[in-house]
Amino acid sequence: xxxxxxxxxxxxxxxxxxxxxxxxxxxxxxxxxxxxxxxxxxxxxxxxxxxxxxxxxxxxxxxxxxxxxxxxxxxxxxxxxxxxxxxxxxxxxxxxxxxxxxxxxxxxxxxxxxxxxxxxxxxxxxxxxxxxxxxxxxxxxxxxxxxxxxxxxxxxxxxxxxxxxxxxxxxxxxxxxxxxxxxxxxxxxxxxxxxxxxxxxxx
Length: 203
What we know:
Blueprint: H1 3-25, H2 32-39, H3 43-49, H4 53-72, H5 81-91, H6 97-113, H7 117-144, H8 152-171, H9 179-194
């Protein structure tokens, strides 16, 4: 392994550890030594890569977001557009332990964004990337004839808002909202707008 590869591996290990710790204790309570311990590195090495908690938080959010994006890109060119869209929407809900961790990070970001300009800019940028993912999936389906034409920006904004709203209720373990009901309601909007079957596709 080259020096550059070792450096990249160390940074990724630190960022993965940071995601775990931030999700567990929250940004306000996190200490750099907690992340160093979880990552198996010295505090000095952690500070070498990330000078402040704020920088670590920002890069951890970006790292977590990128990991989800990488997963969504798998075999994207060989499956129906409805499945690609369903995978994206599924990833925007707390559907498994890893995505619940991502949701805790998002919630930390939302809180920070209310009083910190850099966090606000990061949140808006990440939402922009989410908007692009959903919009591109819609455009792919329209181009292939699988989806009926729609106002892509409006539909994308609505789907993101629905995922946020249902996601919050699911994270709160609200007994009036189940994961299957949430997915069904969101896909109902997709079905009406795009002219596809009302059942959420198998992933």
